[in-house]
Design brief:
Two copies of one chain form a homodimer. By secondary structure, chain A is an alpha/beta fold. Helix content of chain A is about 35%, strand content about 20%. Chain A has six helices and six strands. Chain A has a six-stranded parallel beta sheet, sandwiched between helices. In chain A, helix 2 links the parallel strand 2 and strand 3. The two termini of chain A are about 30 Å apart.
């Protein structure tokens, strides 16, 4: 970014958190900025954005998770391992200085599910190079994350079509 | 889309409405869907998304507006003309059946500023082909638009960095 980068959080129950981050990424790459997206708790089901990303210069998306549902009460070891590796990777990428924007997609949920330690994420935010724009998404954003953030958008679900039996449509939700 | 398309609205004061729509567009094109974005009240200042769009297959973005600020109390004729042409173009594009997703970016603001008639937008929504996913963005979404929508996300501004004197950063906001 042009000399400084902020910490942005997209949280809340409504639709549009990951998509907002994707839009930010698309816009930033349009200006020639280098963007790195790390998706927590997501497997290859989200191939819409992966397919698009391949065709966009300066945009990288990697996923640390699997398509399966994570049990909040009792997450499996594989889910914790994935999240752990995602966080380690995030630290490297943010610190590398090679990227202008880093998106930690659904990291708030990984924290809420206690797959990764809050303290390490807070440290990652505090230690980020000045020029890196850092985007954190996912519902349940922790108050301490919000405290560190410069910009917080909370997306409220005003109306949702579940009542029509419409859910998880290809090309829209994933 | 796969047989049916919904009407989605992204509104509210917070950041992320246009970016959410861009993200939806990026994801949809990743699945091979054809996406058309019409931006109201925006001129070439938003070149980040324009530049990126050029490089994405099946994604078209056109702007009907200018970089200058529109006076809500007394919009200039050129602003009304732009919005009028944008709406006519939107009707054609939606009705053409050539696009799986059509984004009418900031159309809610164009309505709030009375640049275009509400009734025509309501008709456009009601008459859309079944398979078209229609996305309307912008704060001030009219209650009648919300009534017709299947999915409404309201983005609340929880925290904003204006207090730090940070505004309109290249690669982030445009």
């Amino acid at each position: 970014m042009d000399g400084f980068g902020l910490v942005q959080v997209y949280t809340g129950e409504g639709k549009g958190k990951t998509t907002a981050a994707l839009g930010l990424a698309l816009r930033a790459t349009g200006h020639g900025f280098r963007v790195y997206i790390i998706q927590f708790m997501k497997g290859r089901i989200n191939y819409g954005e992966l397919e698009s990303a391949k065709r966009i210069r300066n945009l990288t998306i990697v996923q640390f998770g699997r398509a399966e549902f994570v049990d909040k009460q009792k997450p499996e070891k594989i889910d914790i391992d994935y999240a752990r590796r995602g966080l380690d990777h995030a630290k490297e990428i943010v610190a590398s200085g090679k990227y202008d924007m880093v998106v930690l997609d659904e990291i708030n949920v990984a924290l809420e599910f206690k797959l990764i330690p809050l303290e390490e994420v807070l440290q990652l935010i505090k230690n980020k190079p000045k020029n890196v724009e850092l985007i954190l998404t996912g519902r349940y954003a922790h108050p301490k994350i919000l405290e560190l953030a410069d910009l917080v958008s909370e997306i409220k679900e005003v109306k949702h079509p579940y009542q029509k039996g419409i859910q998880g449509r290809r090309g829209i939700e994933y």
